[in-house]
Design a protein that fits this description.
single chain, 245 residues, Aminopeptidase, 2 domains, two-stranded antiparallel sheet, 7 helices, globular
Length: 245
């Protein structure tokens, strides 16, 4: 397997020094290295998420046009250990909404089995901090992170600072490409988890939950706001609060 030598575009993860990341859309990459990274992260993505090949097509389009298909800031991070690809973490940032969307994430078991128990929380904090710095420079401080995941992984996300948003979550089949079907179809295999970025512990959090869900369902997926399923989730989100120690 090829090994990616350390250089200025590869960043060691603070708190998890065994891992490093490189962004497919880092402007410092030359064309040859970017194509190599595209090949590597595409292989990782399709190995872990074969049901979502559209993401690879969207990265290809953005590489060719320089334009994000959703107008969000897109970060397909390839995760490395000892210079070798061991995973991916794909994030988009809706800066005006102040929301980070974690769309895909996976790390090879062999690359994480000897990491400390807290590695995931530290890793995600590192990524969130990078997104926050970028957004703040653009004048958009971030407020929350949202992701979808199976219920069986709930304890994992809660240990990393996420809260289950109990809104009867439904996601559109085919994601952003739901309109390729004759009607919107929803699936209920995942839950929504939200991690506040700012300190709002113990306060009503309806605005935070609604903002995060709108960023995912309406801004990212492009679902009509007046769909009954979307309305139901937003109404339930408006009644949620955060109670943390």
């Amino acid at each position: 397997m090829k090994v990616l030598e350390k250089n200025e575009v590869i960043t060691e993860v603070v708190g998890v020094p065994e891992l490093s990341i490189v962004d497919l859309f880092d402007p410092r990459l030359d064309a040859e290295r970017r194509e190599e990274l595209f090949e590597w992260i595409s292989e990782v993505h399709l190995r872990y998420f074969p049901e979502s090949p559209h993401a690879v097509a969207e990265w290809r389009k953005q590489l060719d046009t320089g334009i994000s298909p959703t107008m969000e800031v897109v970060h397909p991070w390839l995760i490395l250990r000892d210079g070798k690809p061991v995973g991916e973490w794909v994030v988009t940032v809706n800066q005006p909404a102040g929301v980070v969307l974690m769309l895909f994430g996976a790390v090879d078991k062999s690359a994480r089995s000897d990491l400390p128990r807290e590695w995931l929380g530290r890793f995600l904090t590192f990524l969130i901090d990078r997104c926050q710095q970028e957004a703040t420079l653009a004048g958009f401080p971030l407020l929350a992170v949202i992701l979808e995941s199976e219920q069986s992984h709930q304890s994992r996300w809660e240990s990393a600072g996420f809260i289950h948003a109990d809104v009867g979550y439904l996601e559109p089949e085919l994601g952003m490409h739901w309109s390729d079907q004759t009607e919107v179809r929803f699936i209920d295999s995942n839950l929504a988890f939200i991690r506040p970025i700012t300190g709002i512990s113990g306060k009503p959090a309806s605005e935070l939950f609604v903002r995060a869900l709108r960023a995912l369902l309406i801004d990212h997926y492009g679902l009509p706001e007046d769909l009954p399923q979307v309305q139901a989730m937003l109404i339930r989100a408006a009644a949620l609060s955060i109670n943390q120690n």
